[in-house]
UniProtKB/TrEMBL annotation:
Its EC number is 2.1.2.10. This is Aminomethyltransferase. NCBIfam families: gcvT (TIGR00528), PRK00389.1 (NF001567). Substrate binds at residue 212. It comes from Garicola koreensis. GO terms for cellular component: cytosol; glycine cleavage complex. Keywords: Aminotransferase, Methyltransferase, Transferase. The glycine cleavage system is composed of four proteins: P, T, L and H. Residues 21-274 form the GCVT N-terminal domain.
Length: 383
């Protein structure tokens, strides 16, 4: 049995993925991610990144939250607790949405799967899971719903890449191949892999086609092994969180704590997910309607944009962005050399007057001002 692992700062035991032993056997290096000991990479993060772009990569995402919302008022409750119209999603579909505060600040971005008419499975980020559960509990007082945090009982594996559909089709039962091939984006179904029933969803966080597979912790190890074995002919490699971050950055996908936070509103992040037309008086509605009327993210405040530079010297999180007069006009939220594109990319919040694509700005990279060009996100889009 693996001994508990501890953080360097406060020596609090880290939570372990049900696949920890499998990662160790594969020689993974680990990192503390939101209180979980998770694989950072196995061999080369560049190799893992390119595998996802050209073939298939497999990620352990068991640190992500899983919250079950059930009851006659489930749809109405989620339409009050979140900014999107979750009632509009049919069973078998999923929606990306946000939970915000009364003043519109982003508590978390999450995906909600409608399992049945009165049942949803909500997936918050690992670091925000406790906050989301607490908010759900507080916001559910006047609704006939039950809320169950199932995070530590459910394992989650993601298969991402252009060969992911072919791989998944090869490991399900023969009569389920058609189901996999016809599963729409942001939809889910149930399939059997290795004799185990799996909740299969077609979403992703890499910019590639891909699937997420949910099942109980005590079954996830066998699924991991079956996918590794079955994926050998499809170029599948295990992937860590390092390449997951470079992949999502190329795809222009926001990361909570970088692009999203309590200090930011959906309009600034360019997330058109607020359902102003729904009948429920959702939390944050007044603040977000006011921000929209004032032109936040369009004519006032700041907006999230992409920055590119022909070199490989990257602008990193927290670096100041200036205009040609040296005036600070924003801040980098994420940045790295792009393995796919071959040049430096970054996301940054800039004052709206400087967000027109083609605008040139400057970023101080280790004492050297470098020129960057503003572009519309994303940096990379799959064929």
């Amino acid at each position: 049995m693996t001994e508990p692992h501890e953080t360097d700062s406060n020596r609090t035991p880290l939570k372990e993925s049900p696949l920890a032993a499998a990662h160790e056997a594969l020689g993974a290096s680990f990192t503390d991610f939101s209180g979980w000991r998770m694989p950072l990479k196995y061999s080369s993060e560049l190799q893992e990144h390119h595998a996802v772009r050209t073939a298939a990569g497999m990620f352990d995402l068991s640190h992500m939250g899983e919250i079950r919302v059930m009851g006659p008022d489930a749809a109405a409750f989620l339409n009050t607790a979140l900014v999107g119209n979750l009632a509009k999603a049919e069973p078998g579909r999923a929606k990306y949405s946000l939970m915000v505060t009364d003043d519109g600040g982003i508590i978390d971005d999450l995906i909600s799967y409608r399992i049945e008419e009165t049942e949803y499975l909500v997936i918050p980020n690992a670091g925000n899971r406790e906050a989301v559960v607490a908010e759900f509990s507080a916001r559910a007082e006047s609704f006939n719903v039950e809320i169950w945090d199932e995070t530590e009982g459910i394992g989650l594996i993601a298969i991402q890449g252009p060969r992911s559909e072919a791989l998944i089709s090869s490991v399900v039962r023969a009569n389920e191949t058609f189901v996999v091939e016809n599963l729409a984006s942001y939809a889910h179904t149930t399939v059997s892999i290795g004799g185990e029933e799996v909740l299969l969803a077609r979403t992703g966080y890499t910019g590639e086609d891909g699937f997420e597979l949910y099942l109980p912790n005590d079954k996830v190890g066998a699924l991991w092994r079956a996918l590794l074995e079955g994926g050998a002919d499809f170029g599948l490699v295990p992937c860590g969180l390092a390449c997951r971050d470079s992949l999502r950055l190329e795809a222009g996908m926001p990361l909570y704590g970088n692009e999203l936070s309590l200090a930011r509103r959906p309009q600034e992040a360019g997330l058109p997910v607020v359902a102003y037309s729904k009948e429920e008086d959702f939390i944050g509605r007044t603040a977000l309607e006011t921000a929209r009327a004032e032109g936040l993210g369009k004519t006032t405040g700041q907006r999230l944009v992409g920055l590119i530079s022909p070199g490989k010297r990257a602008a990193r999180t927290g670096y100041a962005v200036t205009d040609n007069s040296g005036t600070v006009i924003g801040e980098v939220t994420s940045g790295a050399p792009s393995p796919t594109l071959g040049y430096a990319i970054a996301m940054a919040y800039l004052d709206v007057a400087h967000t027109e694509p083609g605008t040139h700005v400057s970023v101080d990279v280790r004492g050297r001002p470098l020129d960057f060009e503003v572009i519309k996100l994303p940096f990379y889009t799959r064929d």
